[in-house]
């Protein structure tokens, strides 16, 4: 298992729908922010500045799976607890648990492929390098 | 199986990220729009106006699962092809295939629970009534 | 005066806030879409494909000014009526009237500068070429 | 003049457009969050919990005016510096200066009307009470 890193979000009025609760695509938005935050919090440079992996453009999504347990609303502080569940060659599974205190709001599981842009302009998935896995360990 | 209904989206500049492609939470946003559109296109009133199901507040999500096959960008027209895969008591599975012409961009599977607000103010899941299933058939 | 072009929007549940009305930044989002739509509806290519203006990256905003008259909600169809109020050298003023039938919801006035990317990578504002102004007339 | 309160934002990848810079409606979204944050940071309860002003629903916008000076991008930390420029009966002017360090990114000026919901369900603008102005002084 890797480190778990928390990313905090203050839920805003404008994040909520007419039912007064978070409009669910915002959770995907926050999980994406938490994914970026995770690697920099582990001490890595941002994807676009990762000189040890030239041409790196980040880790686009192949798949997301989210389960919603209860609702959150504005004025609340939530924490997104992120880790990497599995390194699988060119692909990795990142998981996010969205908590309000001890309450699990929702949980997401993202499948991402680490990609570089080749000289031709094409994207190519690459095996996650050892230095990235070590930083997250 | 139910009807399949298409909902069209013109992808905008502002829907895209620094990689020049649709930022993925927008797909969730469009699938939610397609979900609402589906039932009205089947001839049903909007959830909040569904007098045959008093107190109906709609069908909140329990779970989403999306697989991304290729990217879309601004200036493109995409269609979201929506149907109900299964009625399962108080819960139903709605699927969305996002197409650009013949190309499958991504596909989503949503698990939703049909809910009414009780006099106490609490939400309660209810069995999907026959008139809704008939309208979609 | 230029042509006026309408851009239609079906207001979605997720565009609305806990007060049940459109969360106002969405109007800016739709006005931006209407701005792009305006020029292509006038017969021009999209900014990034405008070969008669090499390096064109579009017309970034210098200023926006929006007045809100009444609210809109989901399930409603609104139209954004866009024109160019003034060509002013490298800058132009684009106006948007957001209507629901005969009701004026809000009106926006955007100041934009037409820009190209120079070989050095720097952005430079350029005088709006005659062929653009003619297409909109 | 009133207090000035800062609200911090970490700009995310998904907040940026294909030009790699913040898509401008996000500034409106952040200024709205900063507006809410301002009053609670001044020691007031959230609008919906303001028992000293029964029925308060907040302060909807009448007008916004934003000037953009330079761009911001993801990975950057920006601060939104908010104050109330003027109390004008039922209306007040709130200003936001968006800064990255010493650099002014953009500045917004919002005209808002303080509103309560009457028993009939209608909204009514009310004079900003003394206790609110005192809290912000």
Molecular structure report:
4 copies of one chain form a homotetramer. Helix content of chain A is 18%, strand content 41%. Chain A is α+β, with helices and mostly antiparallel strands. Chain A has a single domain, classed as Hotdog Thioesterase (Thiol Ester Dehydrase, Chain A), CATH 3.10.129. A 5-stranded antiparallel β-sheet of chain A has the order 1-4-5-6-3. In chain A, strands 2-7-8 form a 3-stranded antiparallel β-sheet, with no helix packed on it. In chain A, strand 7 (115-117) and strand 8 form a beta hairpin. The longest helix of chain A has 17 residues, at 25-41. Chain A is elongated. Chain A starts with a strand and ends with a helix. Chains in contact: A-B, A-C, A-D, B-C, B-D, C-D. Strand 3 (61-68) of chain A pairs antiparallel with strand 3 of chain B, so a sheet runs across the interface.
Largest chain interface and its two residue counts? A-B, 19 and 19 residues
Number of helices of chain A: 2
| Residue fraction in strands of chain A | 35-45%
Structural class of chain A: alpha+beta
CATH topology of chain A: Thiol Ester Dehydrase, Chain A
The number of domains of chain A is 1
End-to-end Cα distance of chain A, whole Å, is: 7 Å
Provide mean pLDDT of chain A, rounded.
96
CATH class of chain A: Alpha Beta
Shape of chain A: elongated
How is the quaternary structure best described?
homotetramer
Q: What topology, given as strand order, has the largest sheet of chain A? A: 1-4-5-6-3
Unreliably modeled segments of chain A: none
Please provide the count of β strands of chain A: 8
Percent of residues in helices of chain A:
10-25%
The major sheet of chain A is characterized as:
5 strands, antiparallel
Radius of gyration of chain A: 16 Å
- What's the CATH architecture name of chain A? Roll
Protein name (chains A, B, C, D): Thioesterase family protein
GO molecular function, one term (chains A, B, C, D): hydrolase activity
Enzyme class (chains A, B, C, D): hydrolase
Keywords (chains A, B, C, D): Hydrolase
